[in-house]
Amino acid sequence: MNMRMNRVVLAGILLVLIENGVLPWLIPSAWSGRLMPHLTFVLAVYVAGYAGRHRAFLFGLGFGLLGDVLYYGSLIGPYAFGMGLIGYAAGLLLERKPLTLAAAMGVTAMGSAALGTIVYMIYRLFRLTPWSYGFSFYWYIAPSLLLEVLIALALYLPVRRFLLKPSSSSSEESAG
Amino acid sequence: MRNKRLFILMIGLIVFIAVMGFTLGRTRLTWPEKFLNDAVGTVQGALYRPVGAVVDFFGDLGRLSDVYKENQQLRQTVAQYAQDQATYNFIEAENERLKEELNFTERQKQLYKYRYLIAQVVGSSSNPLDRTIKINLGARDGIKPQMAVTTTDGLVGLVSRVSEFTSTVEPITELDPESPQGVQIAATIFGKEKDSFGIIDSYDAKSGMLQMVKIDENDKMAVGDKVITSGLGNVFPRGIVIGTVVNRQDGDFGLTQKAMVEPAAKFDHLQEVFVVAVPDVNGP
């Protein structure tokens, strides 16, 4: 149940760079405004599962804020707030049982929908988006959610391999 | 224990609402923000450009068959350009002479001498409600907020925030007439600059079209015309291609008309953009 937090933070920074530097190139033009996965959010779910809710809260808050500051459009804070809150909530959900792949993907899906909704509501509150919630959900929340679930699947092995402390990971493997 | 959690959540909510309200509509950045932007922007440039080059290479392989056709078109265009260049030189010389004779001030003469600064894109945001791109020119290179950013295809957006070595560009797909700092772009039609005027004020993600409003009923704009910036007001450079008129219809109140404009530039997979520096004419 212990993560190497130094490596996790490094991995987070790497994911920020990939999220804004590499992913925009891999997404086809027709989907460019619709598929916008948040890699650091997926990692925050893993932090919630392996390192507990407090660390997930801090991780989500920190990397959400980093993303907000780096790509400061209208305001700072929606992702910091959303990712912090959902990191904590995911930690609460995953506290009891060991993190299986299915649980990670399920929580990522729920969290992604919740994060999209929270951010949409903040933008709606400040009248920064003309879109209705139904359209936003169809336009980007649902497609990004599916992609984030796939990314959770892709990150599962690397996270277990590189970001967990070896003793705990082996004991968990024997347990699960 | 439950109450404590709830209490912290409420405090957090209040703090964040305050932060969001405070950062809303602010154009200046504090030094930690600038530092973060510059540090990450520099590193990210080293990642974004090679990946872009590789992706472009494979894209080009797929388009090889079109190259022949494109080449023919370009030849025709070049021939046209040679003619236009000759005409242009005559007209420019005459224009200069007339300006001298009419005693234009230095300020008036410099009005339309724009500088085009080449910038590399280093990243684009992953926030679908607030899409921004980051470029590797900043305050050190003379970038200021509200400068126009274009590609060879057309207008991409406006510089929204500037730090020392990087700046953030807000694409014109983020135009929203209801937003607190609603930017509007005065536009006209290429070839009908005297007879056409309209204001580009919003973008519709569903159809991928810009909306041009406040068009006069007797305006000579027609479907298929090329929309360019008019430069009225001298904040925004003139003559930058925005897009093509797709349809024209009555406006919301029936007094003026509106038109849908298909943007000429694409807003993703960008590599090189030009920042248009307007000579500072509003200064004293």
Describe this structure in words.
The complex is a heterodimer of chains A (176) and B (284). Chain A is mainly alpha-helical and 176 residues long. Chain A has one domain (2-24, 34-164): Arp2/3 complex 21 kDa subunit ARPC3. In chain A, 77% of the residues lie in helices and 0% in strands. Chain A is built from eight helices and no strands. In chain A, helix 3 crosses helix 7 (133-163) and helix 5 (78-94) packs antiparallel against helix 6. Chain A is globular and about 50 Å long. Chain B is of the alpha+beta class. Chain B has two domains: 33-104; 115-277, Beta Barrel (Thrombin, subunit H). In chain B, the strands form two sheets. Chain B has a six-stranded antiparallel barrel. Chain B has a six-stranded antiparallel beta barrel with strand order 6-7-8-11-10-9. In chain B, a hairpin with a 4-residue loop joins strand 3 and strand 4 (155-162). The longest helix of chain B has 38 residues, at 64-101. The N and C termini of chain B lie far apart (62 Å). Classes of the chains: A mainly alpha (176), B alpha+beta (284). Chains A and B meet through helix 1, helix 2, helix 4, helix 5 and helix 6 of A and helix 1, helix 2 and strand 1 of B.
